[in-house]
Design a protein that fits this description.
about 280 residues; Rossmann fold; 2 domains; 12 strands; about 20% strand; globular
Length: about 280
């Protein structure tokens, strides 16, 4: 654990970044653990990312999260990239090591799986096929996490087939690219369907995914958390499917970052979830 006479520092780098709920989450944990420290939003322009990251050790930061648009660019700046981040193709967390070097990792997959297991503890990775909608950065993290858990088959649906095929090639395993026109048929026999696109987010259109062929026993999950229940999740819930909202994916990334930064693994509690929900 970090020496008690040190003021603990961490933050989130992005552009823009002031909308981030991460400071609310992490400062809640500082208060709960009665630690002297703070987690701050760092509005860093893309052309200033390298200088900002290299300044972290001198400024006394234990590390930081990185968000849009820095998650790919940070990979070329840090001293070491963890295998998870390399596979996913993006960094979400940077740790300042004792010698001042920077380790880049990605906690998105961990956050997704931990959230899924908390909200649906009966889910089993080996129980059947999973359908993933979208082939962007969020999709790569979700697919990586599912493969790490032992999911036997992922049907990856995307409007641009080449992007889905690229994810399948990069991650290997049982990923099969599926044409957008075949998205409804892909739901046959699925035990889990995950929306990793921005569709359903406030300001975006609804996800165009008919659910008629989704088994009644399947789980529907979304990584969008504004709103807490997307139209996709509402439609799934209305027909009797269990659902998993996206806010927990954000919350469950935090404890792993804290373990890397401070040697502590804080809890994701109902109190914390309610606090963040009130801010949305």
């Amino acid at each position: 654990m970090t020496a008690p006479d040190r003021f603990l520092l961490a933050g989130v780098m992005g552009w823009p970044v002031m909308h981030s709920r991460s400071p609310l989450i992490h400062n809640h944990w500082f208060a709960k653990h009665q630690l002297a420290g703070t987690y701050v939003p760092l509005a860093i322009r893309p052309d200033g990312l390298a200088a900002a990251l290299r300044a972290l050790p001198a400024l006394g930061f234990a590390g930081c999260n990185v968000t849009i648009p820095h998650k790919q660019a940070a990979m070329d700046i840090v001293d070491e990239v963890h295998e998870s981040a390399r596979a996913i193709g993006a960094i979400s967390c940077i740790t300042v090591r004792p010698d001042g070097t920077l380790l880049g990792s990605n906690n998105d997959a961990f956050g997704f799986i931990r959230n899924l297991r908390q909200q649906q503890p009966g889910w089993r990775a080996d129980s059947g096929p999973v359908v993933v909608i979208g082939a962007g950065g969020g999709s790569r993290a979700v697919c990586y996490g599912l493969l790490q858990q032992g999911v036997p088959e992922i049907r990856l649906v995307n409007r641009t087939p080449g992007r889905a095929e690229a994810v399948a090639l990069a991650l290997g395993g049982g990923i099969r690219a599926v044409a957008w026109a075949d998205r409804e048929a892909a739901l046959d026999g699925a035990v889990l369907v995950v929306n990793t696109t921005s569709q359903g987010m406030v300001g975006q259109g609804d996800l165009d995914l008919p659910l008629g062929r989704l088994p009644a026993t399947a789980i529907a999950a979304d990584i969008v958390y504004i709103p807490l229940e997307t139209s996709f999740l509402a439609a799934a819930r209305a027909r009797g499917n269990a659902t998993v909202s996206g806010l927990g994916m954000l919350l469950h990334q935090g404890p792993l970052a804290w373990k890397l930064w401070f040697g502590i693994e804080p809890e994701v509690t109902a109190e914390l979830q309610a606090l963040v929900e009130r801010s949305l």
